[in-house]
């Protein structure tokens, strides 16, 4: 099973007319609401600082973007950028997971190992004005977080990533996160043998939470694969195929700012089709699709 690239891919490229998005645009969030695709994308200008732009589309392929970024760094902890948005709609509001990239330094309270990244959450009512909520954890190397689109057992659930694995954490208020647990680890010898992290928010299906995640091997090639988690207890892994569903092969996936990267950060389901949006070689945004029923059946059949 492989996803099919949309023939118009890459669907969004850097814009040389706006300095803040002139160099690279990649790793987007996409939500589908009221017949429109909304995208929040990571953009780098010639200063290499990441900001987040907004685009809207009727078909998910042709996009109209705003001229100014909608979310920009604030303070020392974000001095080098706000990266990799992943957006979840829940209870009429939008929650954006993003990585704050600050200056290198030791955590002020714990004195823990140098960490310049913080997995953050922000909230919006309209996808354009955002308010910061706070971090999932602090003072450690942690990113690749994404909020589940429903509460489980009354609590919010987030993915996060403690290298090299995918972790879960739970919260009553999106501020205090507890019960951190490793759920998926790299598989030495396979495409995801070195390091893995979550893609977009997981997809609820009757069979379980379908997870699209990225991983890389000793050759540092980023691919995308799937896993299935129990609906009632997402700490339980029900299936995880050995093969990936997408790997770099197009010239714009092989060559860019970072070579050999397909890095999915959004997987909305629209009329029964999974739309995987991904950063390609950290330079442009690709789109690959497949019927949800096919991805699910393949994940269950080959992943048990
Ligand atoms: C990861 C993240 C992503 C990036 C990817 C490939 O560690 O930092 O932002 O797209 O590497 O370079």
Topology:
Elements: E1 4-5, E2 24-33, E3 36-44, E4 50-57, E5 64-65, E6 81-90, E7 93-101, E8 117-124, E9 131-135, E10 143-147, E11 156-162, E12 165-171, E13 178-184, E14 195-198, E15 203-205, E16 208-216, E17 222-229, E18 237-239, H1 251-254, E19 262-266, E20 269-270, E21 273-280, E22 284-291, H2 292-303
Antiparallel strand pairs: 1-22, 2-3, 3-4, 4-5, 6-7, 7-8, 8-9, 10-11, 11-12, 12-13, 14-16, 15-16, 16-17, 17-18, 19-21, 20-21, 21-22
The protein binds beta-D-mannopyranose.
Instruction: Give the termini separation.
Output: 15 Å
Helix content: under 10%
- Helix and strand succession? EEEEEEEEEEEEEEEEEEHEEEEH
The CATH architecture classification is: 5 Propeller
CATH superfamily: Glycosyl hydrolase domain, family 43
* Overall body shape: globular
């Amino acid at each position: 099973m492989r996803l099919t690239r949309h023939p118009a891919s890459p669907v969004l490229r850097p814009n040389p007319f706006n300095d803040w998005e002139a160099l690279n645009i990649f790793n987007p969030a996409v939500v589908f609401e009221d017949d429109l695709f909304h995208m929040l994308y990571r953009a780098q200008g010639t200063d290499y600082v990441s900001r987040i732009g907004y685009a809207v589309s009727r078909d998910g392929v042709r996009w109209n973007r705003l001229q100014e970024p909608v979310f920009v760094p604030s303070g020392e902890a974000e001095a080098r950028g706000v990266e990799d948005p992943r957006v979840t709609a829940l209870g009429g509001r939008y929650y954006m997971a993003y990585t704050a990239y600050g200056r290198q330094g030791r955590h002020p309270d714990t004195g823990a190992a140098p960490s310049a990244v913080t997995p953050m959450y922000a909230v919006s009512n309209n996808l354009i004005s955002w308010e910061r909520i706070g971090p999932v954890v602090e003072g450690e190397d942690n990113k690749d977080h994404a909020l589940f689109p429903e509460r489980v057992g009354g609590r919010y659930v987030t993915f996060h990533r403690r290298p090299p694995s995918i972790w879960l954490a739970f919260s009553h208020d999106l501020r205090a996160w507890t019960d951190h647990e490793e759920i998926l680890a790299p598989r030495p010898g396979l495409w995801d043998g070195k390091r893995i992290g979550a893609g977009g928010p997981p997809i609820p299906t009757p069979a379980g939470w379908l997870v699209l995640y990225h991983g890389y091997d000793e050759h540092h090639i980023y691919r995308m694969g799937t896993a299935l988690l129990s609906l009632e207890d997402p700490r339980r892994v029900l299936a995880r195929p050995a093969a990936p569903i997408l790997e770099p092969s197009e010239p714009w996936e092989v060559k860019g700012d970072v070579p050999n990267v397909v890095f999915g950060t959004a997987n909305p389901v629209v009329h029964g089709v999974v739309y995987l949006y991904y950063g390609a070689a950290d330079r442009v945004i690709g789109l690959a699709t497949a019927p949800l029923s096919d991805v699910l059946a393949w994940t269950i059949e080959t992943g048990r």
